[in-house]
Write a structure and sequence with these properties.
0% strand, mainly alpha, globular
């Protein structure tokens, strides 16, 4: 009987924690869809990486260009969760921030995490500057097949865009 009560108490605590977690994520997702850049930016002080990742992604989705500096800071923070850093790189590409290319290239050179490298390569393949093309050419030989494929795809995209005289 006592063990059953104890297990029910633990289950209740876990359910409450999950409810709080999903409520935070839902709030952030609603802010992204509503393009509420202020609410999304306010979430950048959160400690929970899953909520921070959603907020960072939301800033890119919502077109919050005023968050560029914060996104660049998150990307360059090597102590951050890799998923948060990856989301920052993707958000910068969604915002078409070509000034982030040197940072994206530098982080790509330093990263040993394949998911982060994949996100960085994908972002560089969206921004299509001469510097990003150089980094993509180097990433074609990456040991991770997904990073290598993303680099080839980015090079193809950039070749088409740059030959047409387009800009990112």
């Amino acid at each position: 009987m006592r063990s059953t009560v104890f297990l029910l108490a633990i289950a209740g605590c876990v359910a409450a924690a999950l409810g709080a977690c999903s409520a935070g994520i839902v709030e952030v997702q609603q802010a992204a869809y509503g393009r509420d850049c202020g609410l999304l930016a306010a979430q950048l002080s959160r400690k929970e990486p899953w909520i921070l990742e959603e907020a960072v992604a939301g800033l890119g989705t919502a077109g919050c260009t005023q968050a560029t500096d914060a996104l660049m800071e998150l990307l360059s923070d090597g102590d951050r969760d890799e998923r948060v850093r990856a989301a920052a790189g993707v958000a910068l590409a969604r915002l078409r921030k070509v000034e982030a290319v040197p940072l994206l290239v530098g982080e790509l050179a330093r990263s040993s995490h394949p998911e982060l490298r994949y996100a960085l390569v994908s972002s560089l393949g969206t921004l299509c500057t001469p510097e990003s093309v150089g980094a993509l050419e180097g990433a074609v030989s990456d040991g991770d097949i997904y990073v290598s494929r993303a680099a080839r795809k980015g090079l193809a995209r950039c070749a088409g865009e740059l030959s047409a005289g387009g800009t990112p």
